[in-house]
Amino acid sequence: MGALLLPSSLDALRLNRFTRIPGEGILAVVVLLALPRRRLRTAVAALCGAGLGALTVLNLLDMGFNEFLGRGFNLVLDWELLDDAQSYVSDAMGGTAATAAGIGAIVLSVLLVVLTALATVRLAHLLARHRPRASRGTAIAAIAWIACAVLHLKLAGMPIASERTADAIREQSDRVVGTLRDEAAFAREARSDTFGGTPPDQLVPELRGKDVLITFIESYGRSAIEDPVIAPTVTPALDAGTESLAEAGYQARSGWLTSATYGGSSWLGHSTALSGLWVDNQQRYRTVTSGNHLTLTKAFQKTGAWDTVGIMPGVQKGWPEAEWYGLEKVYNAFQLGYKGPKFSWSTMPDQYALEAFQRLEHGKKRDKPLMAEIILTSSHQPWAPIPELVDWEDLGDGSVFKEIEAAGKSPEEVLADPDGSREEYGKSIRYSVTSLVQWLERYGTDDTVLVFLGDHQPRPRVSGLNANRDVPVTIVAKDPKVLEQIDDWKWTEGLRPAEKAPVWKMSDFRDRFLTAFGSTPHPTKE
Description:
Elements: H1 2-5, E1 21-22, H2 23-34, H3 38-69, H4 81-93, H5 95-129, H6 131-151, E2 154-155, E3 158-159, E4 161-162, H7 164-190, E5 211-217, H8 223-226, H9 231-247, E6 251-258, H10 266-275, H11 282-289, H12 296-303, E7 307-311, H13 321-325, E8 329-331, H14 350-362, E9 370-376, H15 402-407, H16 411-415, H17 418-443, E10 448-454, H18 460-463, E11 470-477, H19 480-484, E12 492-493, E13 503-505, H20 509-516
Parallel strand pairs: 1-4, 5-9, 5-10, 6-13, 7-8, 7-9
Antiparallel strand pairs: 2-3, 6-11, 6-12, 10-11
Helix pairs in contact: 2-6, 3-5, 4-5, 5-6, 7-11, 9-17, 10-11, 14-17
């Protein structure tokens, strides 16, 4: 009964979900009662039970994915994300906990399939031994189910007649079919490109001579600015940053983008914003990164007028996508010189990553201006412990953060407290934004153009169960001509976008940016 009625999200895991009549159970009993031979009945019961156990495992995976990513588990695409989940647990709670969790998940999955199969076989034989009584009971249950379905009767707010198992099978099937159809359609879409054939001298001519920095802030979503619990921590930092940047001669404009991902899978947000394509699953990501679709960062490289660099503190293994992004040089977690402690998943504080960027690239004399893609990771869940800002002169190799990390909250403490998670999330966004603002005040020049944006909203428990997918996006520059190019965007002045500021799909950003700064479309087609 529990397996037949189990919902696919933790929020739906309530008593009223289990006070229903499962139509699939009645149908299974009818089939089992109709089988005269014990061996055949055993085989059918075992098969049905194993299938129900496997579906239960998928329901549990749906719960996890809905909890963290705001969507269900995809049978075709999402198996490799389980490795990422284990890595996240390892970074947040230690290798022992990750290993135990992985082994526990495998054992639980096997037990669910085996025990559900055994239980179904046992019930099948019980029904056979009491066939007359079981037949009468099944007939009564079937009549009750039909009556409740026809009359739409409810108990505790839920329809009494349940088709939950059939719905779950249908949902999984629709995802699989949709994914297979989408793969071919998206491959055709990715081969078409509005700016794919644009000559190098016709790409971003209005930014020639400028250092252009495209910075993603992990989990920086609309909830950080509008949620009543989170906003009081974040919005003062944004307003203070607007004022201090104005005193330093900078102006800013801000709007909203609707991200292709939610709660995680940051690389989908990065690739969507920079490719101009809607990359909302792993298959689309593999397709686009293995092709030649022009990214915003590669557009700068294609001109030959910029040096292109990636600052990737979250990358801890090979990253072949660098070529697709057009990044001539990439610094991963091990190449930024950091000797301090990790802050849960984040390999280093954002302040240190920005200082390393200054030391290794931005502060050097060069023949060309710089285009950099920078990923800031301190606001990655579980938001504990959170770094604190230190004097920039004291950053050194990052050892200064050892005491700060040791004094911070533990991931277990924050994850177990929903309200505490929201508060700590707000603090992490404040830290990341303030680090970036201080870096710009300290090292920015008259020719610096900073674009910074969120990659996705935080997990549903923090952003809100009905939150949208919007993230803030901001452009900051000292040269007034830069912001004049985007006047028709109608973005809000300052670092904090207004509630009614324009909202675009994140995949629209590349083309709008290229167009605003003088690029000429030369489409390529499939």
